[in-house]
Amino acid sequence: MEQVRENKIRFVDALRGIAIIGVLVVHCGQFGANDFPTFVQNIIVNGAIGVQLFFVASAFTIFLTYGNRYDKETNPIGNFFIRRFFRIAPMYYLGIIYFLWQDGFGARYWLGDASHISTWNVLSNILFVHSINPYWITSVVPGGWSIAVEVSFYCLVPFLFLRIRNLNQAFVLFLFTIVLRIVLQSLFQRFPLISFERLWVEYLFFYPPDQFPVFACGIIFYFLITTPPAEWRIDPFVVFALSLLFLAQYLTQTSFIFSAHIRFAMAFVALGYALSRKEFFILVNPLTVYIGKISYSMYLIHFAIMYWLTKFNYVDFAPSNIAYFPIVNYLLRFCCLLSLTVLVSTCTYLLIEVPLQNIGKSIVRRKESQLRLAKASRKHPHAEEIWQP
Fold it and tell me: Long-range CB contacts (< 8 A, 24+ apart) of 132-135?
């Protein structure tokens, strides 16, 4: 069983590695010479869905670890949030400090018509509730929207774990998140809450309800892996409802129901299931597994690396008169970005992430010991007197 669990974590780390490489691919393409052929441009732009691969892998891992610990711990819910805080907060708080120093408190695109970053904006990031405001969601830490969405999912995990107990219920949850997304998108598109139209449209992609179907795909992924295929059971009504939604999308020639990021999430479930059955070396190898382990640091740090590469004019390396200049230049820039990001992230992983996660684990162990001692004392109120010398 331990070997099976180790293999699961290995291929999930590889998926995270692939995800962060995709994120670097798209952000690297936003700097320097970027006049790419259409085919190359499509590949680069779609690297952004690496974030959705993160969400799928996260939902799978969270359900797997939460399930393994739920019956073994005295306070599984409290312990879950302690572990998650020490997993997410240290690097994110460092990101808040760093990016406020790098970019200052002044105006920027994500602030809309606001002239500066407010105290409430910073506080919302510290509390991980910055997804509630279009001007806060990603204006302090670049890419901070995904951290806010991730934490929103964490808040639902204890409830979802008790309610979603099999593959059929996971598909029902997916249906529910799709319908909820459709209703909210229709409402908010018709009645925008801010006047900056483009920013509002982008916010409606970033905010949690638009990403919840992706996490639901991750939960489906969890039950596909943990449930023997002979025991897969999906209610005909669920299949019927899903088929109607797919038919509605194709008959109306719209991508509104299953938008691109949701379709990618569904494909990632299939990919993940395949890798769980056979680890194809091209995707699951020491490099992707290692990059996956440090992927959280890489996600936050690569924005800073690109800033400094741009500041020192290290984004265009190749001479402009050579053949395929934009592609050659992009590849050089990407190799530089990836190498530096891995190097710095290795340091932050070893010096910040691991030590702080260990602190969180030690707090959980201490609290568990105290709770078990208190529980034992209630069962045997005279136990302490018996053991006194």
Answer: 134/193, 134/194, 134/196, 134/199, 134/200, 134/203, 135/110, 135/111, 135/194, 135/199
Q: Is residue 28 a contact partner of residue 334, using CB atoms and an 8 Å limit? A: yes
Contact 32, 330 (CB under 8 A): yes
Round to whole Å and give the CA distance between 84 and 72.
18
Tokens at 206, concatenated: 């970033």
Buried-state track 32-68, b at ≥16 Cβ within 10 A, e below 16: bbbebeeeeeeebeebbbbbbbbbbbbbbbbbbebee
Instruction: Give the other-Cβ count within 10 Å of 71's Cβ.
Output: 7
Cross-strand bridge partners of residue 159 = none
- Alpha-carbon 295 to chain mean position: 10
Q: How far apart are CA 22 and CA 20, in angstroms?
A: 5
Neighbours of 106 (CB within 10 A): 9
Check: CB of residue 50 under 8 Å from CB of residue 20: yes
Adjacent-strand bridge partners of 106: 116
Reduced to 3 states (helix: H, G, I; strand: E, B; else coil), residue 195 is coil
The pLDDT tens digits along the chain (389 residues) read 444 454 558 999 999 999 999 999 999 998 877 778 888 899 999 999 999 999 999 999 999 999 999 888 999 999 999 999 999 999 999 999 999 999 999 999 999 888 899 999 999 999 999 999 999 999 999 999 999 999 999 999 999 999 999 999 999 999 999 999 999 999 999 999 998 899 999 999 999 999 999 999 999 999 999 999 999 999 999 999 999 999 999 888 777 899 999 999 999 999 999 999 999 999 999 999 999 999 999 999 999 999 999 999 888 877 777 777 888 889 999 999 999 999 999 999 999 999 999 999 999 999 989 888 887 777 666 544 444 44
Contacts of 14 (CB under 8 A, 6+ apart): 275, 279, 283, 284, 285, 288, 289, 292
CB 170 within 8 A of CB 222: yes
Q: What one-character DSSP code corresponds to residue 106?
A: B
Which amino acid, one-letter code, is at 346? Answer: T
Angle at 250 between CA 245 and CA 255, to 5 degrees: 80
